[in-house]
Write a structure and sequence with these properties.
3 strands
C-alpha cells in the first residue's frame, strides 16, 4: 500500500516528484516485498529512499534529474533498495520483521 503522508506544495516540481516517489515506492515494494520503505523528495529533484526499520537519519538519494527514462529511475531505485538492505544485513527476499544483523551506526 502506498500512502501520501503530506503534500505541502502544488508547484510543478512537487507534482512531478510525488509521481516519481510513488513509482519508486511501488517498484521497491514489488522488488523487496513487505519491507517498510519511505520514499520522499527534496528540492532540486532529489528522491530520498529509507528503510523505516533502520536509523531514520540513514538513507539513499537518487538524483531524479539524471534519470532520463523510467528504466533508469527503476534501476536506480532497485540499487538504492538493495544497498540499504545489504548495509542493514537484511535479506532481499520478503521481510518477516526480523532485524537480522544490524548495521554499524
Amino acid at each position: 500500500m502506498i500512502e501520501v503522508a503530506e503534500v505541502t506544495s502544488w508547484d510543478a516540481e512537487s507534482v512531478e516528484m510525488e509521481a516519481k516517489a510513488k513509482e519508486v515506492a511501488l517498484l521497491l515494494t514489488r522488488t523487496y516485498p513487505a519491507h517498510p520503505w519511505m520514499v520522499g523528495w527534496a528540492p532540486g529533484m532529489t528522491l530520498i529512499v529509507k528503510h523505516m526499520a533502520g536509523d531514520c537519519r540513514y538513507g539513499f538519494t537518487i538524483d531524479a534529474c539524471r534519470s532520463f527514462s523510467a528504466s533508469d529511475l527503476a534501476r536506480s531505485a532497485m540499487l538504492a533498495g538493495g544497498e540499504l538492505l545489504e548495509r542493514m544485513g537484511l535479506p532481499r527476499t520478503a521481510w518477516n520483521g526480523d532485524m537480522g544483523q544490524q548495521y554499524e551506526q
